[in-house]
């Protein structure tokens, strides 16, 4: 009961804080100029917490999550940990029948290899491992349980579609998951501020999110010494990133979500990936004028 009351109160608080936020018109003009020729659909939400300023461009539009869905899956797993139904130290045996393909390392494990939940969560977030992500979704109670949790957190548009009863039709449209730029920033913020599940478990979740193998887009446009937490997601027509930045002048978070992209290439000069890098660099130099960081090509 206390758990449900905590979520309700926090959801109400988030709504009130969001209402008080002020739009940063200058920054919005800069970002609108950057995206005007993009061949696809773009949604952006930016929030600077100390300044209480935001930019919202199609921020409440639904986008496919691609692998960004692994953030709500993470919260679903930790909800089960809070309820005493899972432990990070729990042992699991990998079965080669779980091979899924795509990104990740566990598909290369030997059949019957022993692992644990902590390793699975780490692989899911750091290497965007698909095998462990599907496994974690199962352990979290499946898509339906995760979706109910998102509703309780005040995120009605953030949903898991794949392998979720009653969501076949919407899965065909959005794929594994769906969210909006505003909601995925809110979810990352809840984790950062210790308000997703409990402070202790939120802290642990955030530590996992700080380790990102895929650092060639938004993260490449930030100074290497700056602490961040992030998650990327990519499909042929979709390239996404959510980032929480611990900047000298104050923390800020942003999400860039795309869909219906004309450029479906898998090269560093993909139009959407270039756009994400540019937006990240614009935000850093806008919020940190005294610590300008020159945009550069991250490919070595």
Structure write-up:
The protein is an alpha+beta fold and 300 residues long. The chain has two domains: 20-61 and 180-192 and 211-300, 3-Layer(aba) Sandwich (Beta-lactamase), CATH 3.40.710.10; 64-178, Beta-lactamase (3-Layer(aba) Sandwich), CATH 3.40.710. The protein has ten helices and eleven strands. The chain has helices spanning 2-20, 25-35, 70-82, 117-126, 130-139, 142-152, 168-174, 181-192, 199-209, 271-287; strands at residues 22-23, 41-48, 53-57, 63-64, 91-93, 114-116, 159-160, 177-179, 228-235, 238-245, 252-259. The strands form three sheets. The protein has a six-stranded mixed β-sheet, with helices on both faces. The protein has a three-stranded antiparallel β-sheet with strand order 4-8-7. A two-stranded antiparallel sheet has the order 5-6. Helix 8 (181-192) packs across helix 9. The longest helix is centred in the N-terminal third of the chain and has 19 residues, at 2-20. It is globular, with a radius of gyration of 18 Å. Residues 15-19 have low confidence and may be disordered.
Topology:
Elements: H1 2-20, E1 22-23, H2 25-35, E2 41-48, E3 53-57, E4 63-64, H3 70-82, E5 91-93, E6 114-116, H4 117-126, H5 130-139, H6 142-152, E7 159-160, H7 168-174, E8 177-179, H8 181-192, H9 199-209, E9 228-235, E10 238-245, E11 252-259, H10 271-287
Parallel strand pairs: 1-3
Antiparallel strand pairs: 2-3, 2-11, 4-8, 5-6, 7-8, 9-10, 10-11
